[in-house]
Amino acid sequence: MPELAEVERARRVWAQAAGMVVVRVAVRGGVRCLREVSAEVFEKALVGRELSESLAHGKQLLFRFGEAAWLSVHLGMAGRLRRDVPELVPGRHDHLVVYGERVALVYQDYRQFGRVRLDEGAEPPRWWRERPAALDGEGLTVGAMRAFLKRRGRAPLKAVLLMQERFPGIGNWMADEILWRARIHPAQPAGSLSARKERDLYAAIGEVVRGALHFIAGQGEDPPESWLFAHRWRDGGRCPVSGKELVRERIGGRTTCYAPGRQRLRE
DNA sequence: CCCCATGTTCGACA
DNA sequence: GTGTCGAACATGGG
Prior knowledge:
The chain has 267 residues and is of the alpha+beta class. The chain has helices at residues 4-15, 39-46, 126-129, 142-151, 157-161, 172-182, 195-219; strands at 24-27, 51-57, 60-65, 69-74, 79-84, 94-99, 104-109, 115-120, 247-251, 254-258. Strands 1-6-7-5 form a 4-stranded antiparallel β-sheet. It has a 4-stranded antiparallel β-sheet with strand order 2-3-4-8, with helices on one face.
């Protein structure tokens, strides 16, 4: 689930409990996603503190407890955040539960590709302060995008769009959606776009990001049938514009869906 | 049993 | 050093 819009949705789930005071923390020992942080460290940092801030950026989540404890969550491939009852007995995949009087905040992740960390300090951790420009609003400029594409000139665009250092929050389906909308073949080398195609790509990034946030984070529903999203995993799925059969192929190390004809490789 | 999965990282190799 | 690619991570579903 977790690309930028699902991550924002997850943020809102915990943010609903803003102000709750932590009474207890439960941690599953020895799980990969909690790595270096022990139960005692979580307890010491969180108990008695209130959930004071909830932030999301790209695929990163950051929750502040009290003044100086920062709990960060990356959902990996299968992580989810939920609220549950304060009597909750953690299930097999509930790796971290932060209990308040009236609610429990749960991090669950059956594949354990996610990651939870704890940082302390009056300011957000360094990695957060140095995060790349966001993709909604005016954060990413065409110039910055173009420079990045040139630097990764020979790599397929599909792979480049997945690079979080420049396109934070874009994942497999959003990258496909963006290229489909911009009518660019996913294997097109990043450095080979015409000025016009660069503008198309830039516009498509903005549209897909804003649309995904609107539908998924805002409304809590999937994007409409007019998006590639609704068709990409169906066998025999067809391009919602041309009606032609979609193709699935491995490009840039990931399964990629595109509409041949609409998205052609060019010189 | 085999293959696949909305992600990241690490080691091998050019 | 730079850049790319596949495997590995842990689990479940088809």
